[in-house]
């Protein structure tokens, strides 16, 4: 199939959380409403606002009280809380209702977020062509053309009608496919409404970027077709950062580098010029994009890549004691556990990697991972706590935690597919035995690029809970990756300085134990398998379950070298008393941390 002839749609639910609440309380249908999260300051922060309320100027991000000032009849729904944490299950279940309808009707559906889906309609359109339908304007009651901005219904009908007739008559039928795609989307949107009660909008175009862009042109309850002939004049008015993938730092960089505001202004740059500034791959991607060509496929993905729960602890609500942290590790672990169990039953898969993200008062964000050996609330909570404790600057016996914590997130990912329930139990019990025999107290690996795929979206889709259901970026080259990375720059891994609380004796004994165990661990180079990770230090392929131990081996090794160096400096120093020449790594570390 020629990629330029694809027909891609993006379906986006309108003011989704509000519709979910209104479905439960239909007496609020048609009234100005919003959803706020947490019953805190000034009526809570609004995370969703319906279109009736938007007419009064109410916007997402406003406080409930501010919304009521603008619109006295404004009704606020509150996100459910469990253990003081937002519970989004209601919205996830509603999302599943929508995806059931989409999956029952189309083969190629990609879940882009909790309320967005890409559909590749190319094949469906081809089949429809054989039916030789005679379509009329009545089949397109909510369809708009991206290039036509009129708000007058009669004008919309007149312009669309002319276009419809043109593309049915046109010999080349360049736009006929898009018309048939729009017809299918009119149908499916009606089905979604009938079967779930929810309204949605849609964009129909030749690729995902254009479908996403035009979906927002005529919200709510409408759909928009983006034809190739619309590209130039629409791009001339489209700010660079409105393009999916150019919304964050990457877009800022493009604006700065080329001194442009609108994406169309980049048309004057040759392929060579773009590639010189941005690298071959990204320069080429941008060159094509501004001409309406983008080839990222719709992936048949209906499942989340990771299941996560997180919580912010701003200002005085920060976590400053081990007890508080333990409680929250437990709440978050419970949330993830419950959803993992449900996911395992429904999707016959199991997560292999637990990732902990934490923001400290120092503004440092730490991302660390460890293998999931079994689904267990206690296990998740304990692993999370153990990771976090590494960053505590106080003594191990103290309940006080410094620097205080402002955010904790845990996320389970790296799913193993096609697991049946019986084999899961077997697998876990086997793994647990194996791992417990070789893994020491340290059970942590540095998280490298595990989460980037889903976390790349520039918009924080949820202020308190990271849904991790975001559209994937089309961008693959180094230029963009660098800027996506720069968003991540704060994710500093405080590995060496924080591990200094480990005592010399434990390191040494661990080190020798590991050395003797090294052959047991599966360090086979060049293994290409989903279960293997390449160690960034020695470049060996390491079985994922053994990575924590392997990392600790390097860490212990490095400390040993450092200890040896220090000891030799100490020995050669005439000012040091004889009894200090046998000093432990502990005292070295303590001294170092005081500097
Ligand atoms: N959401 C959230 N926090 C955010 C943004 C969104 O919790 N910062 C939630 C509430 C939204 C849902 O995700 O209802 C979907 O987000 P959208 O960006 O698609 O916005 P809406 O569906 O609310 O409105 P629209 O009709 O503009 O798409």
Automatic annotation (TrEMBL):
CC annotations in GO: nucleus; replication fork; site of double-strand break
Catalytic activity: DNA(n) + a 2'-deoxyribonucleoside 5'-triphosphate = DNA(n+1) + diphosphate
Acidic residues bias spans: 448-463
Region spans: Disordered: 448-467
Coiled-coil stretches noted in the UniProt entry, renumbered to this chain: 111-138
InterPro entries, per database record: DNA/RNA_pol_sf, DNA_pol_Y-fam_lit_finger_sf, DNA_pol_Y-fam_little_finger, DNA_polymerase_eta, Rev_trsase/Diguanyl_cyclase, UBZ3, UmuC
Domain UBZ3-type: start-end pairs: 528-562
Domain UmuC residues, every copy: 8-247
Domain of life: Eukaryota
PROSITE patterns per UniProt: UMUC (PS50173), ZF_UBZ3 (PS51907)
Protein name: DNA polymerase eta
């Amino acid at each position: 199939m020629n990629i330029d002839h694809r027909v891609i749609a993006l379906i986006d639910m309108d003011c989704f959380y509000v519709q979910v609440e209104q479905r439960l309380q239909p007496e609020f249908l048609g009234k100005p409403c919003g959803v706020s999260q947490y019953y805190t300051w000034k009526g809570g922060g609004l995370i969703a606002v319906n279109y009736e309320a938007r007419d009064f100027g109410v916007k997402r991000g406003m406080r409930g009280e501010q919304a009521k000032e603008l619109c006295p009849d404004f009704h606020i729904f509150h996100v459910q809380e469990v253990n003081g944490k937002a519970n989004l299950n209601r919205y996830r279940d509603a999302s599943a209702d929508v995806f059931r309808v989409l999956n029952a009707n189309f083969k190629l559906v990609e879940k882009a977020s909790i309320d967005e889906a890409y559909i590749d309609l190319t094949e469906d359109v081809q089949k429809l062509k054989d039916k030789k339908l005679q379509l009329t304007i009545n089949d397109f009651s909510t369809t708009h053309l991206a290039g036509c901005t009129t708000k007058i219904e009669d004008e919309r009908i007149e312009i669309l009608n002319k276009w419809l007739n043109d593309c049915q008559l046109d010999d080349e039928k360049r736009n006929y496919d898009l018309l048939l795609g729009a017809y299918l989307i009119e149908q499916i949107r009606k089905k979604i409404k009938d079967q779930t009660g929810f309204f949605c909008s849609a964009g129909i175009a030749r690729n995902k970027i254009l479908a996403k862009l035009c979906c927002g042109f005529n919200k709510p309850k409408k759909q928009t077709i983006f034809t190739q002939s619309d590209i130039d004049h629409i791009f001339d008015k489209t700010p660079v950062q409105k393009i999916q993938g150019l919304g964050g730092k990457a877009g800022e960089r493009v604006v700065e580098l080329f001194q442009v505001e609108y994406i169309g202004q980049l048309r004057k740059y040759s392929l060579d010029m773009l590639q010189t500034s941005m690298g071959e791959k990204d320069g080429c991607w941008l060159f094509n994009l501004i001409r309406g060509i983008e080839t990222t496929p719709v992936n048949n993905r209906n499942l989340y890549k990771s299941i996560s729960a997180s919580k912010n602890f701003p200002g005085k609500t920060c976590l400053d004691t081990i007890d508080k942290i333990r409680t929250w590790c437990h709440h978050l672990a419970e949330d993830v556990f419950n959803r993992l169990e449900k996911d395992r039953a429904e999707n016959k898969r199991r997560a292999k990697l637990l990732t902990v993200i934490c923001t400290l008062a120092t503004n440092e964000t730490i991302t660390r991972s460890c293998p999931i050996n079994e689904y267990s609330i206690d296990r998740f909570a304990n692993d999370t706590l153990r990771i976090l404790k590494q960053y505590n600057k106080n003594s191990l016996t103290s309940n006080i935690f410094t620097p205080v914590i402002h955010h904790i997130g845990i996320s389970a990912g790296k799913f193993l597919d096609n697991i049946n329930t019986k084999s899961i139990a077997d697998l876990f019990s086997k793994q647990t035995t194996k791992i417990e025999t070789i893994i020491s107290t340290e059970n942590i690996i540095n998280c490298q690029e595990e989460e980037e795929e889903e976390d790349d979206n520039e918009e924080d889709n949820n202020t308190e809970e990271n849904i991790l259901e975001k559209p994937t970026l089309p961008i693959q080259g180094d230029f963009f990756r660098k800027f996506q990375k720069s968003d991540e720059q704060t994710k500093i891994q405080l590995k060496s300085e924080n591990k200094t609380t480990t005592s010399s004796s434990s390191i040494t004994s661990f080190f020798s134990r590991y050395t003797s165990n090294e052959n047991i661990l599966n360090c086979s180079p060049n293994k290409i398998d989903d279960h293997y990770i390449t160690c960034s230090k020695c470049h060996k392929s390491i079985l994922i379950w053994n990575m924590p131990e392997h990392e600790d081996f390097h860490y212990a090794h490095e400390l040993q070298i450092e200890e040896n160096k220090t000891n030799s400096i100490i020995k050669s120093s005439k000012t040091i008393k004889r009894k200090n020449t046998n000093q432990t790594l502990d005292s070295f570390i303590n001294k170092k941390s005081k500097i």
